[in-house]
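Anyone opening a protein record will find just a pair of labelled lines. A complete record is shown below as an example.
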Amino acid sequence: MTVYTAHVTHTEETVNAFTKAQFCIFQRKKRFTMLAVAMLTLFAGALNLFGQTLSIILVMIGCMVLVDVANVPRRTARKLLEAKPALGRVEYEFGSGAVTVKTGGSGAEIPYKKLLSLAEDRSYFYMFNDVRGGYMMQKNSLEPNSPDEFRTMLSSKTGLSWTQTGSVLNLNLPSLVKLVKNKKR
């Protein structure tokens, strides 16, 4: 078996990316509800069913809710950065039965079967071991540099399929079906 290694150096950017991925994967009901409320109020306001003043208010509320959907992960990231301002490098080594996570001289082994979700965006791979926490690594740090083989290896070890995090405002039926299938029972 090929042993893969990767790392990430945490910055404000990586914390924002992580909270966005976490929100997209685990907060889909909240995201769907917020988008539905935004769309309903925007449409109700645009149709001008309740008079001009109320229609303007409905459009404003719809716009505020729509903007707030993207702000939810940013607020979470800000809270994390305020609570744990020390950022550093995290290294990963993928063995036969577990991934070893090393940070600041100490390490921990995370068995592959304990992972709940695998996700990626254009810059990072994410592994979530619960809805409140997980791990991320920079794609360009993967050694050996064979992301397709890495995805296949991790999928076979975990029994999970990979999910694209996408945009916070992006919500479609195929991604919802994939997330439901990927959920461990």
The chain has five helices and eight strands. Residues 52-83 form the longest helix (32 residues). The helical segments are 12-26, 28-46, 52-83, 147-158, 173-182. The CA atoms of residues 100 and 114 lie 13 Å apart.
